[in-house]
Amino acid sequence: MSLTLSTRLRDVRGSAIRDLLALTARPEVISLAGGLPGTDLLPRERIAAALAAAMADPAAVQYGETAGLRRLREVVAEHETGRVGRAVDPAGVVVTSGSQQALDLVARALLDPGDPVVVEDPVYVGALQVFQAAGAALHPVPVDDEGMAVDVLADRLAAGLRPRLVHTVSSFHNPRGATLSAPRRALLAELAERYGFLVVEDDPYGLLAFDGPPPLPIAAHGDRVVRLGSTSKVLAPALRVGWLTGPAPLCTAVERLKQCTDLCTSSLTQIVAADLLADDAWFAGHLDRLRAALHERAAALTGAVASVFGDAVTCSVPTGGMFCWLESTDGLRPADLLPRALEHGVAYVPGTAFAVGRDLSAAARLCFASNPPQELHTAVDRLGAAWHRAAS
Amino acid sequence: MSLTLSTRLRDVRGSAIRDLLALTARPEVISLAGGLPGTDLLPRERIAAALAAAMADPAAVQYGETAGLRRLREVVAEHETGRVGRAVDPAGVVVTSGSQQALDLVARALLDPGDPVVVEDPVYVGALQVFQAAGAALHPVPVDDEGMAVDVLADRLAAGLRPRLVHTVSSFHNPRGATLSAPRRALLAELAERYGFLVVEDDPYGLLAFDGPPPLPIAAHGDRVVRLGSTSKVLAPALRVGWLTGPAPLCTAVERLKQCTDLCTSSLTQIVAADLLADDAWFAGHLDRLRAALHERAAALTGAVASVFGDAVTCSVPTGGMFCWLESTDGLRPADLLPRALEHGVAYVPGTAFAVGRDLSAAARLCFASNPPQELHTAVDRLGAAWHRAAS
What we know:
The structure is a homodimer.
Chain A: H1 7-10, H2 16-23, E1 30-31, H3 44-54, H4 70-84, E2 93-96, H5 98-110, E3 116-121, H6 125-133, E4 137-144, E5 147-148, H7 150-158, E6 165-169, H8 182-195, E7 198-202, E8 225-230, E9 242-245, H9 248-262, H10 267-278, H11 280-309, E10 313-315, E11 323-328, H12 334-343, E12 346-347, E13 349-350, E14 363-367, H13 373-391
Parallel strand pairs in A: 1-12, 3-4, 3-6, 6-7, 7-8
Antiparallel strand pairs in A: 2-9, 4-5, 8-9, 10-11, 11-14, 13-14
């Protein structure tokens, strides 16, 4: 049977990353490709205990309010108040099925086909797909070691660009690893005020800082910001609990759209998330352990890359999050070399998968979060073998 | 701050039902308004045991494949094979966050703004919202005691209507309570072939039959059918596990769109759903108990309505599912009487909330599933007091 797809779906790029997950599911492949926190780092016992406690309440198995469990919205509001530095009201929090759903709902609530949207280049592919599905006109702005080049954006705005949304992964960027600097955050909030756009501050990694927290959120500098958060990188992806905080009319619109999208997020996993996020002493200790383990993995990966590749590549220096960004300086093209790397038992995502307008064929994203240090060493050795054989 | 919403969101009707849930959350109100299975009927202990078992596996807390957990897709395919009477392949199953998400993704994957879609009248409000959000041109077809009036649809098609989708809640209709008769099912599948549309057979209630199963699914009569299923009404809404089975190109498209909508449904709740659905002996016994309890509640509600209202109302005779449909014969308008009913401590949904083009001001939907028989008697007594006072 032939089926005609909607115009907008035909515009959505498949996720090379998720397609890769199928390839890399073979047990002999060490994957640096996914954006997965290692399961060994997730607090499975604490979650199991929270699940058992939650199931004592009949409400845990029932439908819940579309905007989210009241207790969870309160906890998120409290955390966000601490991070943003001004009062965030629980009514300004909408719980979503992961922050990916928050992004999708924001786009659907605000965008008409053809509306201009600024994305980063390299881009978080999940954001690219959302804006393609919404039919947006994409305007890429490059990302460098200090995050999005807000000065470039300022020039485009001065030249007449009037986006409805500007999307940024502000801290420990996916895929670039970079963190938006404090001056750029302030400037971005100011530009949002001046030109009337909304900043989507996508922040799933902000709590995963190795050396002290990242700069204050963009939302601390102005109120034309919707912040997206998630439990996926700090508790467990399988909770499927994320949220947005933002202007009241946007929250109302997102809630209405969520009604017809999936009615509500799981009451059960929301109770568990609220339990864990509100357990201050446990959560602080867990984050400390998680950050230390990720820091150790980042050091193992970047150390191995330096030792195997020397100055044949440059590698970003991770200060948090899950990713480092590698660029070859000797003409090797990671996109072309992926099949050979898979033969050698290692996977990564070529930079081209994240490119909007730039040539990123010399780059690759490596995730250091999914594997322990020894595995990361082995993975880089395999990468060296695959790439050296190509170079010789 | 003022925000301009997307054109399509402005077309989405708020759900009177979910808005009502806020009003009826007061403990003194007995709610016949929700579409909730009573929490006392949900297998909470069995789910708790399944959760505990699932958490032994590290994969339970991790991201999963977008199309769903392999084991769950296999179990659903096996069940669907049994119900539809021909082989359903696991590759033709996509797991979604409740069947509401399946409906939303099907609409987004296939519809461009302005595309004609046939909906039932009265309509499942969640479907109405989905098609409004997709910008569809809605063509209502009435529902009577045998389900959608497929003969009326046939006339419209003969007169030139060319819908892309025809949506129907085929068994134990929400809100009408009716089940599409076997001849109408066969005719609908035949019309889909002849005119090239896709039937969306929305079937969350089909397993909740009191007196033997409903007629064979529409999908048994042809392959231009996408079937939607859910665990929400037979296991627990908080699992947020539903699915669609349908033509391969549609499954591929829905999977791609789900990537950017929420990445994947919870691995944990999918493991639990697969465990319970595959436990044949337990599931059969659970369904027997659930059906018996719902049947008892349906009888209690309709008996009380007959005794309190006599021939001042007609009431559908439930043969399964969760709803009965009441119509006043003496000029009372349930929509107008709702505030008074709430004062008397009882809630329902007026027929007007489900109307697309018809005048349903004499009707109301009553849910018998959420409350035990004694509460249902009390609720109808309160309704009688509220309505009689209005009539006098």
